[in-house]
Amino acid sequence: MGTLTTVFLAFGLAADAFAAAITSGIKIKSLRVNHALVIATFFGGFQAFMPLIGWLIGHSFKDLISEVDHWLAFGLLAFVGYRMIYESIHTEPTKKERDPLNIYILLTLSIATSIDALVIGISFGFLESYIATLVVVIGITTFILAFTGVFIGNKCGGLFSNKVEIAGGLILIGIGTKILVEHLSHSP
Q: Where in the cell is it found (predicted)?
């Protein structure tokens, strides 16, 4: 996988964490740098760890599905991308105020925003992609975007969160399409 594709994938996967960080920033009244660091560390750590777990799962089963791995990768990426777009349009904001610095809320948000990274990791396990670089780029990108998102949310409110998730979904669908087209064009 090329550098540009890796970066786009990282941004696509980080989009929902960025949106959640914006929402967290809205809810924190007296924001300090350490608040943003905690949130970004949770989001970045889970976004980096989940594709590694997924890759290990996918890598274990790749021999069983080697004939359709490109279709599976396309399907998983397209599904996750579509789900991100759908949820950004159809999800209503929660009425109940929650403390985004509460450890249980942080764990729940971190897991929820990184499930798509787990699925992507599975698809890359099928494709024999090199996972170490991908994990590092996803983790760092998510950390930076989440850290920034907390401050954006605190200052600007929720103007961008839905648009970010839509863009992330479109990026994932585009990467899935690219994988499928490349494989089909190189097939005998």
A: Cell membrane
CB 121 within 8 A of CB 131: yes
pTM of the model: 0.73
Q: Is the pLDDT of residue 142 over 90?
A: yes
Contacts of 61 (CB under 8 A, 6+ apart): 125, 126
Annotate 6-55 with DSSP letters as a single string: HHHHHHHHHHHHHHHHHHHHHH-SS--HHHHHHHHHHHHHHHHHHHHHHH
Average pLDDT over residues 31-54: 94
Q: What pLDDT score does 160 carry?
A: 62
Residue 135 in contact with residue 77, Cβ under 8 Å? Answer: no
Q: Which residue has the higher pLDDT, 122 or 37?
A: 37
Contacts 24+ apart (CB under 8 A), 65-69: 65/126, 66/126, 69/126, 69/127
Share of the chain above pLDDT 90, in %: 21
Domain range summary for the chain, segments of one domain joined by + = 3-186
Distances 56 to 59, 61, 127, 159 between C-alpha atoms, Å: 5, 9, 12, 37
36 vs 47: CA distance, rounded Å? 16
